[in-house]
Amino acid sequence: MSEHPPVPPQPPQDQGPRQPAPSAPAAPAAPSDGFDRLLRSVPGRDWLAAVLGAVGGWFAAYVVAAIALLLTVAVAAAGSGGAGSGSADLGSSGSLGGSGVPDVQSLLSGVSVLLGAPAQLVVLADLGRLHGSGSIGLLGSGSGSVGVVPAVVLAAQVVLAVLLTRRIRSRVVALPQLLVTSVVSGLVLVALTTLTGLVLAIRFPAVDGVSIEPVHGVGLGSVLGSFLAGALTALLARPALLVRGNVLVGRVLGTVRVAASQLVVLVVVVSVVVAVVALVAQPSWSAALPVFIGNAGVLLTALGFLGGIGTSGLGSASSTASVFGGAGGWTWLVVLLVLVSAFVAGLALAVRRNDRVRSTLDWVVTPVVWLLGGVVLLVLGTLVVSYRVTGVSTLGGTGSVGITAWTPVVFLLWGAAIEVVARFVAPVLLPRLGGGVLLRTAKVVGTDPQPAVAWTSPVGAAPTVGDQPSPGHPVTGQPAAGQSAAGQSAAGAWAQAPGVEAPVGTPAVAGQQAFTGAPAGGQQPFVGAPAGGPQPFVGGQAPAPMSPKARKVLVRSLVAAGVVVVVVVAGAVTTGVLRANVWGPGATARDYVDAIARGDGASAATLTEAPSNASMLDGAVLKSAEDRPTDVRIGRVSTSGDSAYATVRYRQGGSDRTGEITLERTGTSFLVKDEWRVTKPLADRVSIAASDVLEGAPVTVAGKKVGTIENGVFESLAYPGSYQVAVGGTDYFTGGTKTVKVGAAAAPYVSFEPKATKALETDAEQYVSDLIDECATKTDIGYSDGCPWYGPYDADGAVQYTVEAAPELSVETSGSGYVEVRSTKDGTVAYSYRDYFGDAQKSEDSFDVDVYLKVEDGKLVSAY
């Protein structure tokens, strides 16, 4: 017996070309007749649907963008608390002026911002890039662009376009007409997006020396993106029109429907939770949420699928965060939500298939569909930035922030897992859920179209003629030889009409079995498989009751599987929470700052890898500090690879202070317990300057030497607080003691002036006394001898000096280390000599002292 159906007879064909009659020559056909007929065949309501769908989608996106921007401004204004009040004065160009009336340029600029900002958000939603350029006088020029898809704006555009298209379009349009109208929708959206983006570009008022070009997002990306958005939205508005009897297309679209349902539900739920948490716990985040709430939900959903988010380019090394590190332990709750939704998606996919014969191709289709879903989230969750600045030097670069490029591969693996649930778990679990649950699920996800199949008699049965098909005559909806149309109806249609999804649980035509391919007359359903094959979940016969033993095995299996899932999820959540709150950088930062606040320098030292010149980070030094931090709070902690950054807020001296510390992961124990060390402590660099005469003098805090004066300065890191710093000195000079405040608004800097010791005063006075005695022993004194008096002008020969009264002296030092010894009471000197006439003379005179000294090699010498 042949494996192929008999070929029906073909109409006879002439052997040779047919010549036209001489009396009636054929008129040449216009080349465009086929295309013209195609255009004329499109109903008017479909042309209207193509235009109104695109226009309505753009209008909805514009309105949502405007509302989001207004909410952003309102939230930002509410968050500022009205602190920035005052009058506006914009100067001569674009000012409010003395009359309070803005000029034309300011008005146009304000209007362009109010009307243009929502239009540019719509362009960004259609894959545009907001770019601008300008120059500032002699400083140079620059340009930059930002590409990000506002998910909320794009969702508004797609949803309204789909609703309008479904509402207006006719339901009998053929595929060629459908393609033509979809192209029209794409072109209309391109025209709207491009024209409004250019006309409503954001313009800035002219300022002397500053030139800023209009900012808009129109480009090649926005043209292609808007065309794809308009065309695909119109094409997929009613997917049943694409099936047209193609079972494979119907099943692929059904898988897409299930995947899209899961992702949309996850993004919406996560976005709502983010909005609530931001408004309650983190009001500072709320300003950006009205515009980018959908993007935040997309990012967290990608993390829940065990993907990653990070940065690339932007002048720094790439960094990535995931639920396994850097994203916070609470993100494991999103993983739990994704796990539950993935299991439900697998069951829904099985309901969609209605337990049809499963093919090997499903192992490819399902993962690929979820891979494409990951690609969509990648586009929605990534921000691309590029810039170029030309001035003294040229700077530029391109980078991205958002979902990592390998995340869609993880979605592919999730698709494979969902296919496992649909293929192996659903056939066991779904029949036990009840018809009501299955019917409601089928209304949400629909049912796959079933192929028309040939009826084959059971193995070993003799072929029959009549109601049963005879050998070699497959039944494809037409009666076989000897079978009447009534008999076919009685026996039931073998397959539902191509491209038409029959209502769940009801036959396609009168007398048709609910399960496609199942003939009437008590025959078993057969869809390309032996009798007793897969039974439908919806519309089929109720499953036979389970035996007590089978029921016990099923219950135990489900309980065991549930326990395993709960243990795994609980372990993952617990591990994530521990890594974030107990073993994470935040916990280390908390312990470290608490140790500083209570003056426990030893504990702080165990958590710190102190850099060089950090001798004041000592336990005894910290313990002696006054005005240490109080009311310490750990703010935002961000992790990038093995590095973490923590913001610290505290009070000191009645004022609020803010600091930042850096931590590095030094190791991981038992695969989950991270060990962190502080590499940039909560400290400021203290600078202590001193005169050259104090070079080498020791620096002490609380009696502990922390260093010496080198090259006129001592530097060290110190924790916030007030310290009593003492600078020693030599036998002649000392630095004294001063208070250094660390953590205050002013820089921790103090300068020490040398102070004379008692030894310096004594030795300086003795130096002057010795100078006077030395001068008294001389017999001839000139101006260059450095003595405090001069000899008689009329002396002829030697002069004898006698100090009758020594002067009273005082010693003063300067910041440069010079010593000045001056008399506070004059001294008296007597001298005897012979004048030019040979007569003996005696006289007496007073003298004062003003001598400058310096210390050299530990000794006092003349400064000149």
Compute the gyration radius: what is it? 46 Å
Principal-axes geometry comes out as elongated
Helix percentage: 25-40%
Backbone structural class: alpha+beta
Query: What characterizes the major β-sheet?
Result: 7 strands, antiparallel
Q: Average pLDDT, to the nearest integer?
A: 76
Region (Disordered): 1-35, 455-488, 514-546
Biased composition (Low complexity): 477-488
Transmembrane segments: 47-77, 136-163, 183-206, 258-280, 287-309, 329-351, 363-385, 405-430, 553-573
Keywords: Membrane, Transmembrane, Transmembrane helix
Write structural notes for this entry.
The protein is α+β, with helices and mostly antiparallel strands and 864 residues long. The longest helix is centred in the N-terminal third of the chain and has 37 residues, at 44-80. The chain contains 19 helices and 26 strands. It has four domains: 40-78 and 96-244, no CATH class; 246-448 and 563-581, no CATH class; 609-755, no CATH class; 758-862. The strands form six sheets. It has a seven-stranded antiparallel sheet with strand order 3-1-2-6-7-4-5. The relative contact order is 0.05.
